[in-house]
Amino acid sequence: MKKNILFILLACLIVMPSCQRIKKQDVLLLYPNWAEGIAITNLAQIILEEKGYTVTIKRLELGPIYASLSRGDADVCMDTWLPNTHKDYWIKYGNKLEILGTMFDDGITGLVVPTYVDINSIEELNANKDKFNGKIYGIASGAGIYRTTEDAIKEYNLELTQISSSETSMITALKKAIAHKEWVVITGWKPHFMWAEYDLKPLKDPKNIYPKDEIKIIARKGFSTDKPELAKFFTNFSMDEKMLNELMSDVLKDNDPTIGARIFYDKHKELLQSWVVKKETAKQL
Predict the structure, then answer these.
(1) 123 and 92 co-located in one domain
(2) Which strand (E) or helix (H) includes residue 219?
(3) Quick one: 79 and 121 in the same domain?
(4) pTM for the whole thing?
(5) pLDDT digits (tens, 9 = 90+) for 164-177
(6) From CA 148, how far away is CA 164, in angstroms rounded?
(7) Where is the ABC-type glycine betaine transport system substrate-binding domain (predicted)?
């Protein structure tokens, strides 16, 4: 009998740590490999962990992010562009998701060139296609801006091909071209650190192919009911362009994004911590 009791106690001791780990993970955040997504997600992790929460963050491509949230396999993504750029994903998964808040309310997308390039409209690209080597540098083919650019190529009958790559590769191509004063056109968006790092201009889009968007924070369906205090934090998490550019600039200072996010956090601690509410307060809201 004593052996049985001892066995049960040992089993409990073995099982309990893993159970505690599962219980302690308060929120799982997914984010795309984009500058603003990396910055705000790492910052959110720091803010919440300072308040005693356990936060896990995971980088995925956009499609798997929406799919994971819709299945309830993860909790939140802070970098979704709605209602236009990610429209296809929202049509497919939106009924299994909920919007917690607006992180940024002035998102724009489009084609971007250095200011020394003397054209000002998408309609002028064909006449100068050789100067651009027939290329538009874009990001991953699963991104909304990639699809919108394919639409722009059709609508404007552009004789240029979009090159799918990572955001990092696209920025590298931009940087290299600028260093040699070469003509280059990329897919761009605001907010993004590129606007602070380089002298750029958006090309006019007379056919309005590229829409304006808001960056929404979305969650699995039921998240705000299950965890109202965390939902309220994400509702409160909002930045203007100046603040967001400062955050991204800090994050760029080191290969480890947590270092830059911590620098930003230390500068704005009082404001950032005010976004976190107590459980009792959240239930009343």
Answers:
(1) no
(2) strand 212-220
(3) no
(4) 0.77
(5) 999 999 999 999 99
(6) 13
(7) 31-262
Tokens of 200: 């750029």
Residue at a domain's end among 179, 212, 245: 212
Length of the chain: 285
Six-digit token pair at 189?
Answer: 């968006």
Domain's final residue, options 187, 212, 237: 212
Query: What is the distance between the alpha carbons of residues 62 and 22, in angstroms, rounded to a whole number?
Result: 25
Q: Is the dihedral of CA 171, 174, 178, 179 positive or negative?
A: positive
List, for residues 6-19, the tens digit of each pLDDT value.
Answer: 444 454 444 444 34
Q: Do residues 61 and 115 share a domain?
A: no
For residue 106, which of 236, 216, 203, 213 has the smallest C-alpha distance?
A: 213
User: Residue 198, class by beta-carbon neighbours within 10 Å (0-12 exposed, 13-18 middle, 19+ buried)?
Assistant: middle
What are the backbone angles phi and psi of residue 205, rounded to the nearest 5°?
A: -125, 75
- In terms of residue numbers, what domain contains 146? 108-212
